[in-house]
Amino acid sequence: MTEDKSREDTMEDTNSSTVFNHDSEGPKNDANLDNFYEMHLTDTRDTLDKRNSRLLDESGSVVAPAATSGDLEKIETQMSSATFKEGGYGWLVCFSAFLCNMVSFGVGVMQNYYLTTVMKDTATQVQLTFVGTIAFIFINGMGPPMQILKSILGARVLIGLGCLLMCLGLILAGFSTQVWHLYLTQGVMFGLGGSAMYITMMGIVPQWFDKRRGLALGLSASGSGIGGLIMPFIMNALLLKYGAPWTYRIIGFICLALGGFATVLVKEKFPEKTGRKKITDIVQWNVLADNNLKLWCAAATITLFGYLIPFFFLPSKFCEAMSAPTYAAANGLTTSQGSSLVSIISGLNFVGRITTGYIGDHIGRLNMLIIAMFISACCNYLIWPLNHTLGGLIAFSSIYGFFCGTYFTMMAAITAFIVKMDKFPSAFSVFLMFNIASSFGPPIASAIQSGTNPNSFISVQMFAGSCYLLGTILMFVLKVKMSKSVFSKI
After folding, report:
1. Which domains are seen in the chain, by residue range?
2. What residues form DSSP beta bridges with 55?
3. 273-286: per-residue pLDDT in tens?
Protein backbone atom coordinates (compact mmCIF):
# COMPACT_ATOMS: atom_id res chain seq x y z
CA MET A 1 0.00 0.00 0.00
CA THR A 2 3.00 2.30 0.44
CA GLU A 3 3.83 1.98 -3.25
CA ASP A 4 0.20 2.74 -4.16
CA LYS A 5 0.26 5.81 -1.96
CA SER A 6 3.42 7.03 -3.71
CA ARG A 7 1.77 6.64 -7.06
CA GLU A 8 -1.29 8.54 -5.92
CA ASP A 9 0.96 11.42 -4.84
CA THR A 10 2.62 11.68 -8.25
CA MET A 11 -0.28 10.98 -10.61
CA GLU A 12 -3.41 13.12 -10.64
CA ASP A 13 -6.68 11.91 -12.07
CA THR A 14 -7.59 15.17 -13.85
CA ASN A 15 -9.37 15.35 -17.23
CA SER A 16 -8.57 11.66 -17.79
CA SER A 17 -4.81 12.23 -18.14
CA THR A 18 -1.71 11.32 -16.20
CA VAL A 19 0.26 14.39 -15.08
CA PHE A 20 3.83 14.40 -13.84
CA ASN A 21 4.04 16.49 -10.66
CA HIS A 22 7.45 18.13 -10.11
CA ASP A 23 6.31 19.42 -6.73
CA SER A 24 5.48 15.97 -5.34
CA GLU A 25 7.70 14.23 -2.83
CA GLY A 26 10.69 12.65 -4.49
CA PRO A 27 14.27 11.77 -3.65
CA LYS A 28 16.28 14.50 -1.97
CA ASN A 29 19.69 13.52 -3.37
CA ASP A 30 21.13 13.23 -6.87
CA ALA A 31 22.03 9.57 -6.43
CA ASN A 32 18.38 8.50 -6.51
CA LEU A 33 17.17 11.11 -9.00
CA ASP A 34 17.55 8.96 -12.11
CA ASN A 35 15.80 5.99 -10.43
CA PHE A 36 12.97 8.28 -9.35
CA TYR A 37 12.38 9.55 -12.88
CA GLU A 38 12.84 6.10 -14.41
CA MET A 39 10.14 4.64 -12.12
CA HIS A 40 7.55 7.16 -13.31
CA LEU A 41 8.56 6.91 -16.97
CA THR A 42 8.34 3.11 -16.82
CA ASP A 43 4.88 3.31 -15.26
CA THR A 44 3.74 5.65 -18.00
CA ARG A 45 5.13 3.44 -20.78
CA ASP A 46 3.27 0.48 -19.27
CA THR A 47 0.01 2.36 -19.51
CA LEU A 48 0.67 3.21 -23.16
CA ASP A 49 1.07 -0.47 -23.95
CA LYS A 50 -2.38 -0.96 -22.38
CA ARG A 51 -4.04 2.11 -23.86
CA ASN A 52 -7.58 0.95 -23.10
CA SER A 53 -6.84 -0.46 -19.67
CA ARG A 54 -6.17 1.21 -16.31
CA LEU A 55 -3.47 0.92 -13.70
CA LEU A 56 -4.82 -1.24 -10.86
CA ASP A 57 -3.48 -1.81 -7.40
CA GLU A 58 -3.42 -5.22 -5.75
CA SER A 59 -7.00 -4.90 -4.52
CA GLY A 60 -8.29 -4.09 -8.00
CA SER A 61 -8.93 -0.40 -7.31
CA VAL A 62 -8.30 2.14 -10.02
CA VAL A 63 -5.14 4.19 -9.36
CA ALA A 64 -4.96 6.34 -12.52
CA PRO A 65 -6.17 6.32 -16.10
CA ALA A 66 -3.86 5.38 -18.95
CA ALA A 67 -1.33 7.97 -20.10
CA THR A 68 -1.48 9.48 -23.55
CA SER A 69 1.45 9.85 -25.94
CA GLY A 70 1.42 13.58 -25.25
CA ASP A 71 1.85 12.91 -21.54
CA LEU A 72 4.82 10.65 -22.22
CA GLU A 73 6.49 13.30 -24.39
CA LYS A 74 5.94 15.88 -21.63
CA ILE A 75 7.47 13.60 -19.00
CA GLU A 76 10.48 12.80 -21.20
CA THR A 77 11.02 16.52 -21.79
CA GLN A 78 10.84 17.25 -18.05
CA MET A 79 13.24 14.40 -17.30
CA SER A 80 15.68 15.71 -19.92
CA SER A 81 15.58 19.22 -18.47
CA ALA A 82 16.00 17.94 -14.92
CA THR A 83 19.03 15.72 -15.64
CA PHE A 84 20.77 17.82 -18.34
CA LYS A 85 24.03 19.41 -17.18
CA GLU A 86 24.17 22.91 -18.63
CA GLY A 87 27.32 24.53 -19.99
CA GLY A 88 30.45 23.61 -18.06
CA TYR A 89 33.13 22.67 -20.57
CA GLY A 90 30.61 23.73 -23.19
CA TRP A 91 31.68 27.36 -22.76
CA LEU A 92 35.15 26.45 -24.04
CA VAL A 93 33.51 24.66 -26.95
CA CYS A 94 31.50 27.83 -27.51
CA PHE A 95 34.74 29.85 -27.63
CA SER A 96 36.27 27.43 -30.12
CA ALA A 97 33.17 27.87 -32.32
CA PHE A 98 33.64 31.64 -32.04
CA LEU A 99 37.18 31.28 -33.40
CA CYS A 100 36.03 29.03 -36.26
CA ASN A 101 33.36 31.54 -37.28
CA MET A 102 35.88 34.36 -37.08
CA VAL A 103 38.37 32.80 -39.51
CA SER A 104 35.75 31.25 -41.81
CA PHE A 105 33.85 34.46 -42.52
CA GLY A 106 36.37 37.22 -41.79
CA VAL A 107 38.85 36.85 -44.66
CA GLY A 108 38.09 39.00 -47.70
CA VAL A 109 39.39 39.31 -51.26
CA MET A 110 41.88 42.07 -52.09
CA GLN A 111 40.02 43.20 -55.19
CA ASN A 112 41.49 46.67 -55.61
CA TYR A 113 45.04 45.32 -55.42
CA TYR A 114 44.49 42.72 -58.14
CA LEU A 115 42.57 45.14 -60.37
CA THR A 116 45.41 47.65 -60.34
CA THR A 117 48.40 45.29 -60.42
CA VAL A 118 48.63 41.58 -61.19
CA MET A 119 45.26 41.11 -62.93
CA LYS A 120 44.53 44.58 -64.26
CA ASP A 121 44.39 43.29 -67.87
CA THR A 122 42.94 39.82 -67.23
CA ALA A 123 40.15 40.16 -64.64
CA THR A 124 37.15 42.38 -63.98
CA GLN A 125 35.72 43.37 -60.63
CA VAL A 126 32.69 41.15 -61.24
CA GLN A 127 34.98 38.15 -61.76
CA LEU A 128 36.89 38.91 -58.56
CA THR A 129 33.63 39.30 -56.64
CA PHE A 130 32.86 35.65 -57.38
CA VAL A 131 35.90 34.52 -55.36
CA GLY A 132 34.11 35.31 -52.11
CA THR A 133 30.84 33.94 -53.48
CA ILE A 134 32.44 30.58 -54.29
CA ALA A 135 33.94 30.35 -50.81
CA PHE A 136 30.59 31.21 -49.19
CA ILE A 137 28.75 28.58 -51.26
CA PHE A 138 31.23 25.87 -50.29
CA ILE A 139 31.20 26.83 -46.60
CA ASN A 140 27.42 26.53 -46.37
CA GLY A 141 26.65 24.01 -49.10
CA MET A 142 28.79 21.06 -48.05
CA GLY A 143 26.70 20.01 -45.05
CA PRO A 144 25.89 16.38 -45.98
CA PRO A 145 29.45 15.53 -47.17
CA MET A 146 30.91 17.04 -44.01
CA GLN A 147 28.46 15.07 -41.87
CA ILE A 148 29.63 11.89 -43.60
CA LEU A 149 33.30 12.76 -43.05
CA LYS A 150 32.62 13.59 -39.40
CA SER A 151 31.04 10.18 -38.91
CA ILE A 152 34.13 8.51 -40.38
CA LEU A 153 36.94 10.68 -38.99
CA GLY A 154 35.46 12.27 -35.89
CA ALA A 155 34.78 15.93 -35.17
CA ARG A 156 38.24 16.96 -33.93
CA VAL A 157 40.11 15.37 -36.84
CA LEU A 158 37.75 16.91 -39.39
CA ILE A 159 38.04 20.38 -37.85
CA GLY A 160 41.83 20.05 -37.79
CA LEU A 161 41.93 19.02 -41.46
CA GLY A 162 39.64 21.92 -42.31
CA CYS A 163 41.99 24.31 -40.53
CA LEU A 164 44.98 23.02 -42.52
CA LEU A 165 43.05 23.26 -45.80
CA MET A 166 42.06 26.87 -45.08
CA CYS A 167 45.66 27.80 -44.32
CA LEU A 168 46.94 26.06 -47.45
CA GLY A 169 44.30 27.75 -49.61
CA LEU A 170 45.30 31.21 -48.39
CA ILE A 171 49.03 30.58 -48.79
CA LEU A 172 48.54 29.34 -52.36
CA ALA A 173 46.27 32.32 -53.09
CA GLY A 174 49.33 34.51 -52.59
CA PHE A 175 50.87 32.99 -55.73
CA SER A 176 47.81 33.70 -57.91
CA THR A 177 48.34 35.45 -61.25
CA GLN A 178 44.99 34.56 -62.85
CA VAL A 179 41.49 34.91 -61.46
CA TRP A 180 40.85 31.17 -61.75
CA HIS A 181 43.80 30.63 -59.41
CA LEU A 182 41.86 32.54 -56.76
CA TYR A 183 38.72 30.53 -57.56
CA LEU A 184 40.57 27.29 -56.75
CA THR A 185 42.54 28.54 -53.73
CA GLN A 186 40.60 31.21 -51.83
CA GLY A 187 37.33 29.96 -53.31
CA VAL A 188 37.25 26.15 -53.32
CA MET A 189 40.09 25.19 -50.94
CA PHE A 190 39.38 27.87 -48.36
CA GLY A 191 35.64 27.22 -48.67
CA LEU A 192 36.00 23.47 -48.11
CA GLY A 193 38.23 24.05 -45.10
CA GLY A 194 35.84 26.61 -43.68
CA SER A 195 32.94 24.22 -44.21
CA ALA A 196 34.70 21.44 -42.30
CA MET A 197 35.22 23.78 -39.36
CA TYR A 198 31.98 25.77 -39.40
CA ILE A 199 29.42 23.04 -40.05
CA THR A 200 31.03 20.58 -37.65
CA MET A 201 31.44 23.12 -34.87
CA MET A 202 27.94 24.58 -35.10
CA GLY A 203 26.56 21.06 -34.76
CA ILE A 204 28.51 20.47 -31.53
CA VAL A 205 27.65 23.62 -29.57
CA PRO A 206 23.92 22.77 -29.09
CA GLN A 207 24.90 19.48 -27.45
CA TRP A 208 26.23 21.34 -24.41
CA PHE A 209 23.32 23.71 -23.79
CA ASP A 210 19.57 23.64 -23.28
CA LYS A 211 18.23 26.66 -21.37
CA ARG A 212 21.16 28.85 -22.48
CA ARG A 213 21.41 27.50 -26.00
CA GLY A 214 20.46 30.83 -27.57
CA LEU A 215 23.19 32.71 -25.68
CA ALA A 216 25.78 30.05 -26.49
CA LEU A 217 24.96 30.06 -30.19
CA GLY A 218 24.89 33.86 -30.18
CA LEU A 219 28.40 33.96 -28.73
CA SER A 220 29.54 31.41 -31.31
CA ALA A 221 27.94 33.18 -34.26
CA SER A 222 29.29 36.57 -33.18
CA GLY A 223 32.72 35.41 -34.30
CA SER A 224 31.81 36.13 -37.91
CA GLY A 225 30.85 39.68 -36.94
CA ILE A 226 34.19 40.27 -35.23
CA GLY A 227 36.02 38.67 -38.14
CA GLY A 228 34.23 40.85 -40.66
CA LEU A 229 35.02 43.91 -38.55
CA ILE A 230 38.75 43.50 -37.83
CA MET A 231 40.12 41.22 -40.56
CA PRO A 232 39.80 43.80 -43.39
CA PHE A 233 41.80 46.34 -41.38
CA ILE A 234 44.51 43.76 -40.63
CA MET A 235 44.69 42.71 -44.29
CA ASN A 236 44.89 46.31 -45.52
CA ALA A 237 47.71 47.12 -43.10
CA LEU A 238 49.63 44.00 -44.12
CA LEU A 239 49.03 44.70 -47.81
CA LEU A 240 50.51 48.19 -47.60
CA LYS A 241 53.60 46.95 -45.77
CA TYR A 242 54.31 43.51 -47.22
CA GLY A 243 52.30 43.12 -50.45
CA ALA A 244 49.65 40.56 -51.39
CA PRO A 245 51.69 37.31 -51.32
CA TRP A 246 52.95 37.81 -47.76
CA THR A 247 49.59 39.19 -46.64
CA TYR A 248 47.93 35.93 -47.66
CA ARG A 249 50.67 33.90 -45.97
CA ILE A 250 50.45 35.82 -42.70
CA ILE A 251 46.63 35.65 -42.68
CA GLY A 252 46.91 31.94 -43.46
CA PHE A 253 49.12 31.34 -40.44
CA ILE A 254 46.82 33.47 -38.26
CA CYS A 255 43.93 31.24 -39.32
CA LEU A 256 46.08 28.17 -38.64
CA ALA A 257 46.87 29.37 -35.11
CA LEU A 258 43.28 30.32 -34.23
CA GLY A 259 41.82 27.24 -35.90
CA GLY A 260 44.42 24.99 -34.28
CA PHE A 261 43.54 26.36 -30.85
CA ALA A 262 39.85 25.74 -31.59
CA THR A 263 40.67 22.17 -32.65
CA VAL A 264 42.39 21.49 -29.33
CA LEU A 265 39.45 22.88 -27.34
CA VAL A 266 36.59 21.20 -29.21
CA LYS A 267 34.90 18.23 -27.59
CA GLU A 268 31.60 16.48 -28.27
CA LYS A 269 29.25 15.96 -25.35
CA PHE A 270 27.70 12.96 -27.10
CA PRO A 271 30.45 11.56 -29.38
CA GLU A 272 29.42 9.02 -31.98
CA LYS A 273 31.40 5.95 -32.93
CA THR A 274 33.58 6.59 -35.97
CA GLY A 275 34.10 4.19 -38.86
CA ARG A 276 32.52 3.16 -42.12
CA LYS A 277 28.76 3.29 -42.19
CA LYS A 278 25.98 3.35 -44.72
CA ILE A 279 25.35 6.83 -46.02
CA THR A 280 21.65 6.43 -45.25
CA ASP A 281 22.57 5.74 -41.63
CA ILE A 282 24.59 8.97 -41.44
CA VAL A 283 22.46 11.47 -43.36
CA GLN A 284 18.78 10.95 -42.60
CA TRP A 285 17.16 12.43 -45.69
CA ASN A 286 13.73 11.60 -44.30
CA VAL A 287 13.99 14.76 -42.19
CA LEU A 288 12.84 16.58 -45.32
CA ALA A 289 9.45 14.93 -44.89
CA ASP A 290 8.87 17.13 -41.84
CA ASN A 291 6.47 19.88 -42.94
CA ASN A 292 7.64 22.19 -40.16
CA LEU A 293 11.23 21.87 -41.36
CA LYS A 294 10.13 22.61 -44.93
CA LEU A 295 8.36 25.75 -43.75
CA TRP A 296 11.40 26.78 -41.72
CA CYS A 297 13.68 26.29 -44.75
CA ALA A 298 11.35 28.37 -46.94
CA ALA A 299 11.20 31.18 -44.38
CA ALA A 300 14.99 31.20 -44.00
CA THR A 301 15.63 31.22 -47.75
CA ILE A 302 13.32 34.14 -48.45
CA THR A 303 14.67 36.13 -45.49
CA LEU A 304 18.27 35.62 -46.54
CA PHE A 305 17.68 37.17 -49.97
CA GLY A 306 17.50 40.51 -48.18
CA TYR A 307 20.30 40.03 -45.65
CA LEU A 308 23.35 41.17 -47.65
CA ILE A 309 21.71 43.97 -49.64
CA PRO A 310 22.62 46.84 -47.25
CA PHE A 311 26.15 45.43 -46.91
CA PHE A 312 26.62 45.60 -50.68
CA PHE A 313 24.69 48.71 -51.69
CA LEU A 314 25.76 51.19 -49.04
CA PRO A 315 29.49 51.61 -49.89
CA SER A 316 29.63 49.63 -52.38
CA LYS A 317 32.17 47.71 -54.42
CA PHE A 318 29.39 45.51 -55.76
CA CYS A 319 27.61 48.54 -57.21
CA GLU A 320 30.84 49.71 -58.82
CA ALA A 321 31.37 46.26 -60.32
CA MET A 322 27.85 46.29 -61.76
CA SER A 323 28.34 49.86 -63.08
CA ALA A 324 25.65 51.09 -60.70
CA PRO A 325 25.86 54.09 -58.36
CA THR A 326 26.53 53.51 -54.67
CA TYR A 327 23.99 54.78 -52.15
CA ALA A 328 26.73 56.61 -50.27
CA ALA A 329 28.06 58.33 -53.39
CA ALA A 330 24.56 59.15 -54.63
CA ASN A 331 23.96 61.05 -51.37
CA GLY A 332 27.24 62.95 -51.36
CA LEU A 333 29.21 60.71 -48.98
CA THR A 334 32.82 59.69 -49.49
CA THR A 335 34.01 56.13 -50.08
CA SER A 336 35.46 55.94 -46.57
CA GLN A 337 32.17 57.15 -45.05
CA GLY A 338 30.31 54.49 -47.01
CA SER A 339 32.73 51.83 -45.81
CA SER A 340 32.33 53.02 -42.23
CA LEU A 341 28.60 52.28 -42.46
CA VAL A 342 29.37 48.63 -43.21
CA SER A 343 31.80 48.57 -40.28
CA ILE A 344 29.00 49.84 -38.04
CA ILE A 345 26.69 47.08 -39.29
CA SER A 346 29.38 44.46 -38.61
CA GLY A 347 30.15 45.84 -35.15
CA LEU A 348 26.50 45.98 -34.06
CA ASN A 349 25.99 42.58 -35.66
CA PHE A 350 28.48 41.18 -33.14
CA VAL A 351 26.68 42.80 -30.20
CA GLY A 352 23.22 41.96 -31.51
CA ARG A 353 23.86 38.25 -31.99
CA ILE A 354 24.87 37.84 -28.35
CA THR A 355 22.10 40.06 -26.97
CA THR A 356 19.26 38.55 -29.00
CA GLY A 357 20.54 35.07 -28.15
CA TYR A 358 20.30 35.89 -24.45
CA ILE A 359 16.82 37.42 -24.81
CA GLY A 360 15.69 34.49 -26.94
CA ASP A 361 16.44 32.08 -24.11
CA HIS A 362 13.89 33.95 -21.98
CA ILE A 363 11.09 34.87 -24.41
CA GLY A 364 11.49 32.05 -26.92
CA ARG A 365 14.02 31.81 -29.74
CA LEU A 366 11.53 31.77 -32.58
CA ASN A 367 9.69 34.67 -30.93
CA MET A 368 12.94 36.67 -30.79
CA LEU A 369 13.72 35.88 -34.41
CA ILE A 370 10.26 36.99 -35.57
CA ILE A 371 10.67 40.29 -33.73
CA ALA A 372 14.19 40.85 -35.10
CA MET A 373 13.24 40.05 -38.70
CA PHE A 374 10.21 42.35 -38.52
CA ILE A 375 12.42 45.19 -37.26
CA SER A 376 14.87 44.45 -40.09
CA ALA A 377 11.98 44.71 -42.56
CA CYS A 378 10.97 48.08 -41.09
CA CYS A 379 14.57 49.29 -41.37
CA ASN A 380 14.61 48.59 -45.10
CA TYR A 381 11.06 49.83 -45.70
CA LEU A 382 11.21 53.04 -43.64
CA ILE A 383 14.53 54.05 -42.08
CA TRP A 384 16.85 53.49 -45.04
CA PRO A 385 14.72 55.18 -47.76
CA LEU A 386 14.00 58.25 -45.61
CA ASN A 387 17.62 58.99 -44.66
CA HIS A 388 20.15 60.60 -46.98
CA THR A 389 22.66 62.06 -44.51
CA LEU A 390 25.54 60.41 -42.72
CA GLY A 391 23.81 60.69 -39.33
CA GLY A 392 20.60 59.11 -40.58
CA LEU A 393 22.47 56.28 -42.30
CA ILE A 394 24.46 55.64 -39.13
CA ALA A 395 21.14 55.22 -37.31
CA PHE A 396 19.96 52.78 -39.99
CA SER A 397 23.24 50.85 -39.91
CA SER A 398 23.12 50.62 -36.11
CA ILE A 399 19.55 49.33 -35.85
CA TYR A 400 19.79 47.04 -38.86
CA GLY A 401 23.18 45.70 -37.80
CA PHE A 402 21.93 44.90 -34.30
CA PHE A 403 18.96 42.80 -35.46
CA CYS A 404 19.85 41.39 -38.89
CA GLY A 405 22.27 38.76 -37.55
CA THR A 406 19.70 37.23 -35.18
CA TYR A 407 18.92 34.61 -37.80
CA PHE A 408 22.44 33.16 -37.59
CA THR A 409 22.16 33.01 -33.81
CA MET A 410 18.84 31.19 -33.80
CA MET A 411 19.04 28.92 -36.86
CA ALA A 412 20.66 25.96 -35.08
CA ALA A 413 18.49 26.24 -31.94
CA ILE A 414 15.25 26.47 -33.93
CA THR A 415 16.25 23.58 -36.20
CA ALA A 416 17.00 21.45 -33.13
CA PHE A 417 13.63 22.39 -31.63
CA ILE A 418 11.77 21.37 -34.79
CA VAL A 419 13.37 17.96 -35.37
CA LYS A 420 14.77 17.19 -31.86
CA MET A 421 18.43 16.45 -31.17
CA ASP A 422 18.48 12.88 -32.52
CA LYS A 423 17.84 14.15 -36.07
CA PHE A 424 19.53 17.53 -35.64
CA PRO A 425 22.85 16.72 -37.40
CA SER A 426 21.09 15.62 -40.59
CA ALA A 427 18.52 18.41 -40.50
CA PHE A 428 21.10 21.12 -39.83
CA SER A 429 23.52 19.96 -42.52
CA VAL A 430 20.69 20.06 -45.06
CA PHE A 431 19.28 23.32 -43.71
CA LEU A 432 22.61 25.15 -44.06
CA MET A 433 22.49 24.70 -47.82
CA PHE A 434 19.65 27.21 -47.88
CA ASN A 435 22.03 29.86 -46.48
CA ILE A 436 23.49 30.07 -49.96
CA ALA A 437 20.41 32.09 -50.90
CA SER A 438 21.90 35.18 -49.27
CA SER A 439 24.62 35.39 -51.92
CA PHE A 440 22.00 35.75 -54.66
CA GLY A 441 20.13 38.63 -53.02
CA PRO A 442 22.37 41.50 -54.20
CA PRO A 443 22.46 40.37 -57.88
CA ILE A 444 18.66 40.03 -57.89
CA ALA A 445 18.30 43.47 -56.30
CA SER A 446 20.71 44.93 -58.87
CA ALA A 447 18.72 43.40 -61.72
CA ILE A 448 15.50 44.87 -60.32
CA GLN A 449 17.17 48.27 -59.99
CA SER A 450 18.45 48.14 -63.58
CA GLY A 451 15.02 47.16 -64.87
CA THR A 452 13.23 49.98 -63.05
CA ASN A 453 15.28 53.11 -62.34
CA PRO A 454 19.08 52.64 -62.25
CA ASN A 455 19.53 55.96 -60.44
CA SER A 456 17.06 55.17 -57.66
CA PHE A 457 17.52 52.80 -54.73
CA ILE A 458 13.87 52.55 -53.74
CA SER A 459 13.40 49.26 -55.62
CA VAL A 460 16.43 47.79 -53.84
CA GLN A 461 15.17 48.90 -50.45
CA MET A 462 11.64 47.62 -51.07
CA PHE A 463 12.98 44.26 -52.28
CA ALA A 464 15.09 43.83 -49.13
CA GLY A 465 12.20 44.85 -46.88
CA SER A 466 9.79 42.53 -48.68
CA CYS A 467 12.14 39.56 -48.26
CA TYR A 468 12.30 40.18 -44.53
CA LEU A 469 8.56 40.75 -44.21
CA LEU A 470 7.57 37.62 -46.13
CA GLY A 471 10.09 35.58 -44.17
CA THR A 472 8.67 36.99 -40.92
CA ILE A 473 5.14 35.99 -41.94
CA LEU A 474 6.25 32.42 -42.69
CA MET A 475 8.05 32.22 -39.35
CA PHE A 476 4.91 33.40 -37.58
CA VAL A 477 2.90 30.72 -39.41
CA LEU A 478 5.47 28.15 -38.27
CA LYS A 479 5.12 29.34 -34.68
CA VAL A 480 1.32 29.07 -34.69
CA LYS A 481 1.48 25.71 -36.48
CA MET A 482 3.83 24.25 -33.87
CA SER A 483 2.38 25.78 -30.70
CA LYS A 484 -1.29 26.42 -31.60
CA SER A 485 -0.97 29.72 -29.75
CA VAL A 486 0.13 33.24 -30.67
CA PHE A 487 1.56 34.02 -27.23
CA SER A 488 3.41 30.79 -26.47
CA LYS A 489 7.12 30.74 -25.69
CA ILE A 490 8.76 28.94 -28.57
Report:
1. 2-82 (no CATH), 87-283 (1.20.1250.20), 284-490 (1.20.1250.20)
2. 64
3. 776 777 766 778 88
